[in-house]
Structure formats: structure tokens, C-alpha cells
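user: can you give me the structure for this one chain? C-alpha cells are fine.
assistant: on it. calling the predictor now.
[tool input]
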Amino acid sequence: MSPGAIRLMGTGLRVPGSGLRHIAPLLHKARYEVVPTPSAEDAVLESVPRDVVVTVTASPTKGLEPTLALTERLAAAGYRMVPHLSARQVRDQAHLGEVVGRMTAIGVDDVFVPAGDADPPAGEFSSALDVLEHLTELGSPFPRVGITGYPETHPKIDDDITIQAMWDKQRHATYLVSNLCFDAAVLRRWIARIRRRGVTRPLLVGLAGPVERTKLAAMATKIGVADSARFLAGHSSAFIRLSTPGAYQPERLLDRVGSVLAAPESAVEGLHIFTFNQLSQAEQWRQKLLARYDDSGVTAV
């Protein structure tokens, strides 16, 4: 044993890399979130293996159509797709029925249902729970349904309310996706807290992928001024962390939380990677970590 390792024993400090050794199974189950920009389809086709699930966000200004259309095209190309069905962009029950019909016709079996940022709502649905309840009334057409969790304080909703909302929604859902979080201690405490509160659904941990600052700024431009303003209003600290040199590296966060994510009581089943459409960088990063830490004998495609 090296002198440095001996000095660390008994101190409670984490040996560098110790948490990363736990995360290879989660990297095999990682999925990539993309924004439905004009270049998104080509970026997925060029960089994302067919065994990686792709999720498509929804724009509060452009509505659900770009999300649904990109989902249809990538599903036809062989990807397993998870469209975001933002509740506040669904006009009415008839519109929801049309969306369900389109998605089930192409084999979509998994949807993510956030409330969304459209203000005012496009129609009669104002919360994720409204849509979730109606999907249940329709016979639960999607075997997998995801809902949002907020490790860091939501800019507009108190923490206790967000956790209560998860409790209310989980009976209609099959898994949780945590929103962006850059603080390992906050993430660890949040996972323990929701489990103590009886939120039992499996968790996909939301993680910002590796990003280039100039491309992050370009993405803000591509998604439009209004959407960018809404994003920055609710995620200004995230934008600062991502756009400041050296301020964020996803493997550092994983190193600090890896052992917690691997613990059975945490019920973490994978990673939800916010790519900001920087898919080549995300996949290169994932493959690099798998090459270094995966000892399962499974090779990523």
C-alpha cells in the first residue's frame, strides 16, 4: 500500500477514483437527452449507438410537434425513444389521445412527463399529475413513465412541495429522473430523504455531460431567445457552472457520489445525461470511463 493511501485510511476521506469504480453499470444504462433543434437528428445518428436510449425535450414556445417528429424519425432509425410529454403543452384530452396514438404506433413504450415551462398552459392541463392521471384513465398505454425530482431547490417551488408531488405522482409513474445537480452532498442527502419519505420508484440520476462553453452558448441561441430566457431564469447557477472553465467535470461528481448511487437502498437504475446536444463529446466521455472502470466483461457498442 502506498504511503498516501495509508495516510487516507481512517480519515473518512475518499481515495480519488473510488466512487468511479461503482458507476460502470450505470454508464451502460445511461440515456441521452437532446433538444429538438434542426441539427439534432444528424448529431444522434453520427454519435449515439443504437443501444443508448434517447430522450427528446419539449420547447415551451414551439410546442410538442418538434419533439414528436424527431422521436418518430429516430425511432425509424432504430433508436429506443423517450419523448417528453410536457403537460402544459397538451391542449386537451383529445390532443393527448392523438399524441398517445402517434407514439404507440411507432413502438414508444416509455415517456417522460414533466409539467413543462409553458406559461400560460396551452390548454386544460397545468401539471404533470393532470396528464399522468389521464394516461392512467386511458389504460396506461406506456409501460414506462418517468417523472421529475429536484435535488436542488426549484426556483419556484418549495422543497417539501416537490417531494410531496413525487409522492402524489409516483402511483402513476414507474421511475424518477433527477434534475440537474452539481453538489454531491446535496444529491446524497436528497436520495436518502426521498427514500425515507416513501418515494420508492427507481431513479435515473440527472447528470450534465461534458460540454464546450462555446457550444453551450450556441445551443442557447439555437433554442431561441424566449426558451433561453426561461432556461436561464431557472438554471442560472447551472449555466454559470457549465460555462466557467474548470468549474464542472461530470466524473468529479460521479466520483463523490458513486458509492451512494451503487447502494441497493438508493435504487438508482441508470444515468440521464443532459447533453445540450453535444453528443459526440458525451459518447466519447462515456466510452472513456467504461474503458477505464468497466470490469463486467460487457463492451459498450
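assistant: here you go. The longest strand covers residues 268-274. The two ends are 36 Å apart (CA to CA).
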